[in-house]
């Protein structure tokens, strides 16, 4: 998805009736700098293009209405991600998927069970192309519980710290680590099955 089109079309339409005090140049610069990544996060959480576009627009409308609230790029980025995750969960809730795991995640590793495991040898890249692995990983992400999927995307794809993710999803660091480990194990198990079928 090219967020340039959003910044020129639907995003601009979203500003109709908004206060003129908003600095549109700064807003569009923000969309250009972070739009693709926010859209990617929203798409991976919601698994829906239209919902991801809505999340993108609502996220930037909220942040850009108060650009003075953040002084540094790091603060802006984390605020964008926090809003995007909240909006994405709202979309999931509206689709009847509830607010998964926010209140159910355990704070321990005791319930995690690895059902299938194999050692991946050095010839992994010869056995599986990068494109195929990406395709299988994206399919695996769709099968994860939305909270696991969110934590995995934020930590392993976007590189956000566990501490910041805990604040974003309003859980303890330990709960985030459990989600992350569970997501990694589930994805690894799925990839292992796919590789054996090859």
N- to C-terminal separation? 31 Å
How much helix is in the residues?
A: 55-70%
Radius of gyration: 19 Å
The beta-strand count equals 0
Q: What would you say this structure looks like, in words?
A:
With 198 residues, the chain is mainly α. It has two domains: 3-94, Rna Polymerase Sigma Factor, Chain: A (Orthogonal Bundle), CATH 1.10.1740.10; 124-197, Winged helix-like DNA-binding domain superfamily/Winged helix DNA-binding domain (Arc Repressor Mutant, subunit A), CATH 1.10.10.10. Helix content is 68%, strand content 0%. It contains ten helices and no strands. Helix 3 packs across helix 8 (146-157) and helix 7 (130-143) packs across helix 10. The two termini are 31 Å apart. 31% of the residues are buried.
């Amino acid at each position: 998805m090219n967020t340039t089109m959003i910044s020129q079309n639907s995003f601009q339409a979203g500003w109709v009736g908004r206060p003129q005090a908003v600095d549109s140049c700064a807003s569009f610069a923000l969309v250009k700098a972070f739009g693709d990544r926010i859209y990617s996060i929203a798409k991976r959480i919601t698994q829906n293009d239209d919902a991801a576009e809505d999340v993108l627009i609502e996220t930037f409308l909220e942040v850009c209405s108060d650009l003075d609230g953040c002084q540094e790029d790091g603060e802006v980025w984390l605020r964008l991600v926090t809003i995007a995750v909240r909006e994405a969960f709202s979309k999931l809730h509206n689709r009847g998927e509830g607010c998964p795991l926010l209140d159910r995640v355990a704070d321990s590793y005791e319930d995690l069970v690895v059902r299938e495991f194999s050692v991946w040898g050095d010839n992994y890249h010869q056995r599986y192309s990068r494109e195929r692995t990406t395709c299988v990983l994206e399919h695996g992400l769709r099968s994860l519980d939305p909270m696991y999927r969110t934590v995995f995307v934020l930590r392993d794809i976007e590189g956000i710290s566990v501490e910041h993710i805990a604040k974003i999803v309003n859980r303890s660091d330990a709960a985030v680590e459990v989600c992350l480990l569970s997501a990694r194990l589930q994805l690894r198990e799925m990839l292992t099955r796919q590789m054996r079928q090859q």
